[in-house]
Amino acid sequence: MKRKLVFVTNNAHKLEEISSILDGKMELLSLKDIQCTADIPETADTLEGNAIQKAEYIHRHYGLDCFADDTGLEVEALDGAPGVYSARYAGEGHDSEANMQKLLHNLEGKDNRKAQFRTAICLIMDNEQHLFEGICRGEIIKEKRGGAGFGYDPIFVPEGYTETFAELGNDIKNTISHRAKAVQMLCEFLNK
Ligand code: IMP
Questions:
Q1: Is 65 a catalytic residue?
Q2: How far apart are CA 53 and CA 169, in angstroms?
Q3: Exposed / middle / buried, residue 91 (Cβ in 10 Å: 0-12, 13-18, 19+)
Q4: Least confident segment among 10-19, 38-47, 112-121, 123-132
Q5: Catalytic residue of the set 65, 69, 70, 153
Q6: What residues are in contact with ligand 1 under a 6 Å CB criterion?
Q7: Closest CA to ligand 1's atom 15
Q8: Rounded distance, CA 147 to CA 149, Å?
Q9: In angstroms, what is the span from residue 5 Cα to ligand 1's centroid?
């Protein structure tokens, strides 16, 4: 029987992305599947801290094995910003367009466009906590390109490519992304 795991998210894009990476190896349940409508706190100042906070919340309230992730875009010339604040870089509205415009504005005149997406995953299984990390290095271009994906995808070109994540599309992105790498580590652990 497949192992049931709750993925602590309400983001349909991410659920779809991770389901396709897991390729049916586990029965992945969303927050909706477990009828959780709570506003789960995410108030830590690191990606790992937020992932732990979210996974612990579900484990404490539902007693289910689960994992939570948190991702940030870390830009070298901005000392790692927006980082853990990536979703609300331009304010609480979680507006991707405004976030990208703010980032492009803050990088104006800077030659160093290096950046990385970093994902932290916290798995709680059999009452034990495990952390996994995935990093995708690349650079921020000057103007948006492409229509796929979400968040900062239209302005991020991963290392070894000339297209943005938004131009590459989900099939390619899912093989090289920060989240794919972190989930890969998670799957390797679960398959042990
Ligand atoms: P989350 O922790 O996965 O919700 O990510 C926080 C924020 O980082 C999102 O709201 C997006 O702005 C950004 N982000 C996370 N993953 C990606 C991605 O794969 N592409 C582009 N932006 C992302």
A1: no
A2: 31
A3: exposed
A4: 10-19
A5: 70
A6: 70-73, 86-87, 94, 96, 99, 117, 149-153, 165, 177, 179
A7: 71
A8: 7
A9: 22
For the chain, the first-to-last Cα distance in angstroms comes to 16
Q: How far is the CA of 82 from the centre of ligand 1 (A)?
A: 11
Mean per-residue pLDDT, 55-76: 97
CA of 151 to the centre of ligand 1 (A): 5
Let me know: does 10 contact 31? Beta carbons within 8 Å: yes
Task: Show the tokens assigned to 159.
Answer: 């290392």
Instruction: Give yes or no for a contact between 103 and 82, defined as CB atoms under 8 angstroms apart.
Output: yes
Q: What is the pLDDT of residues 67-113, one digit of tens each?
A: 999 999 999 999 999 999 999 999 988 799 999 999 999 999 999 99
Mutate to test the pocket of ligand 1, among 9, 31, 150, 174 (most ligand atoms within 8 A of CB): 150
Closest atom, ligand 1, to C-alpha of 11: 4
Distance 40 CA to ligand 1 centre (A): 17
- State if pTM tops 0.85: yes
Pick from 140, 146, 152: nearest CA to 115: 140
Q: Which is it for strands 66-75 and 27-29: parallel, antiparallel or unpaired?
A: unpaired
Q: Going by DSSP bridges, is the β-strand pair 114-125/27-29 parallel, antiparallel, or unpaired?
A: unpaired
Residue among 72, 71, 60 nearest 36 (CA): 60
